[in-house]
Specification:
This protein is of the alpha/beta class and 270 residues long. The protein has two domains: 157 residues, Rossmann fold; 103 residues, Hypothetical Protein, Haloacid Dehalogenase-like Hydrolase, Chain: A, domain 2 (2-Layer Sandwich). It is 29% helix and 25% strand. It contains ten helices and 14 strands. It has an eight-stranded mixed beta sheet, sandwiched between helices. Strands 8-7-6-9-11-10 form a six-stranded mixed beta sheet, with helices on one face. The longest helix has 13 residues. The chain is globular.
């Protein structure tokens, strides 16, 4: 019996317009009635996930910052944070970028150092779709927040234009593409899989009782910790090998449709 369902947000649960599917609330109510926990697992910041589910915070576990923070209501279940030594290694590389923006993500907000040699207004104007609280700062040293991870947004494509800068860090940090325009740098123990494992332990739920949905490479560890693992039809090809099943695309509301089918026909996923 499935007792926990975890889903990525962008490219997975949300439509291409970054909205919840119209039937989501009905499915959530049904899961709640059946005693099934639902976790929204995203690279988004915590405060942004709160805004995505303003009426359902008592029903949903929020896994933010690619697993660095897990909260259920007012209770923090799991958190991993950067220390000063990590910042001294990662931040100089981010400052070398000549395109895009380099973002420090904290518990209470996201922060962008204003480059001295170029304008980033076009990028900042696009960020409200991903961050509820984001602002430019003169220096990350002035930020009074616990920093969880770093992200880069480059509309030209992060795999070609950003990943080579950060790959030298891959032996000590998790450097992961999280979208066509996004790359995340996290502590090695900070990923959605570790977060789901912490949540399973907290709730007393096993691998065999867990389902998970994802579309991009930052979802790989999460799928690995769920017996019922689904890669979306629109998933990155390298994610598919981590999934036992496929789900329709986010454009076709694949998560909602598949959850409904699992609840009505569990024998199809034995």
């Amino acid at each position: 019996m499935i007792r926990l369902i975890a889903s990525d947000m962008d490219g997975t649960l949300l439509t291409p317009e970054h909205r919840l599917p119209k039937d989501f609330e009905d499915i959530l109510a049904r899961m709640t009635d059946l005693g099934i926990f639902f976790a929204a697992a995203s690279g988004r910041q915590y405060v942004n996930l709160v805004d995505c589910f303003p009426n359902h915070l008592d029903q949903i576990v929020l896994v933010s910052n690619n697993g660095a923070l897990v909260r259920k209501g007012d209770e923090t279940i799991h958190v991993t944070a950067m220390i000063e030594a990590d910042r001294h290694i990662i931040e100089p590389i981010g400052r070398r970028l000549k395109h895009g923006i380099f973002i420090a993500q904290g518990i209470h907000g996201a922060y962008v150092e204003q480059p001295k040699d170029r304008d980033i207004d076009d990028y900042m104007s696009a960020m409200p779709s991903f961050f509820t609280k984001i602002r430019t700062v003169e220096s990350f040293d002035l930020v009074d927040d616990t920093l969880l991870n770093f992200s880069v947004c480059d509309f030209r494509g992060t795999q070609e234009h950003v990943l080579p800068f950060f790959m030298p860090l891959a032996d000590r940090y998790t450097v992961r593409l999280s979208g066509d325009s996004w790359l995340d740098i996290s502590l090695p123990e900070s990923n959605k899989g570790e977060a789901i494992q912490a949540l399973q332990s907290y709730l007393g739920i096993t691998y065999d009782e867990t389902a998970a949905f994802g579309d991009f490479l930052n979802d790989a560890e999460m799928l690995d910790h769920a017996k019922y693992s689904f890669a979306m039809e629109n998933a990155h090809p390298d994610l598919v090998k981590h999934a036992r099943f496929r789900a329709p695309s986010n454009r076709d509301h694949g998560v909602v449709k598949t959850i409904l089918h699992m609840l009505d026909h569990p024998q199809d996923y034995s």
